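Customer ticket, subject: "Can you confirm the structure for Probable membrane transporter protein?"

Message body: Hello, I'm evaluating your service for our small team and ran a test protein. I'd like someone to confirm that this is what the system normally returns, since I don't have a reference to compare against.
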Amino acid sequence: MDIYLPIAELSVNAAVIIGLGLIVGITSGLFGVGGGFLMTPLLMFYGIPPAVAVASSATQVTGSSVSGAMAHWRRGGVDLKMGAVLVAGGIVGALLGSLLFSLLQTIGQIDLTISLIYVVFLSIVGFSMLTETVRTLRRQAKGIRPKRTKRHNAFIAALPGRMRFRAAGLYISPLAPFLIGILVGVLTFVMGIGGGLIMVPILIYVLGMSVSVVVGTSLFQIVFTTAAITMLHAVQSKTVDIVLAVLLLLGGVIGAQLGARIAIGLPPEKLRLALAILVLIVAGRLLFGLTVAPDNLFSVQLGGI
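Agent reply: Thanks for trying us out. I re-ran your input and got the following:
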């Protein structure tokens, strides 16, 4: 069944859009990430304008992250103090991202910029995850146990005004998570991602945050930051297509439940390996679209003279 998207200004097959939401929802439940990194490129591949894909993906990420955040909340897997600092930084980052987004729209480079940022971002994240996971699997194959060492960062340790985040197991300056929130807020606004794909590794490997609360705290931040970003997109760029977002949510909610069930009992290292490969495939497809010339370089419309 075809349905018209008023903001994207094109007709799409509703079943296909729901199917895309289902795929991304399964990915979200399977790997524990927001899924926005996959949703935006898939919509772009389908023909949705990048600016609309970004704004509508942020809307979908907001809705799909609520249930996950509530589940972690009930299990005590959310550090509220850390989450509040991350949200504050995320909102500041969203405001900065809105200025950048508006500038790129003004100069007519928003579509190209979104695609380029995705290629660079996904390539870096994918290769980093792949390298780390392969190294871990090799150690396991040799029977070598990884050393549990507390990670220290000289820059973070030097920041003033330390605060204790008990659930996260940290005693650091709130400036550190605040700056991380700003970075994720900018990326979320421009790329339409939830931010978990970059925030979770930073919280673990840079801040040394407890793994037991990192996912729940990240989802807590995602809910409020992406909600603010959705409002900014709706008011400023006017690229939020609510019809598209609702269709994506229909598939995403069901897919997230399926993915969570599939993930039970699967080795986390192999899940991370599969996620790294998936990220690199998406980056490669985007790069292919940017470098290969289309069949029709020009579209010429002749009018009466």
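A couple of notes from the result: The chain has one domain: 2-289. The first strand starts at residue 2 and ends at 5. Feel free to reply with more questions.
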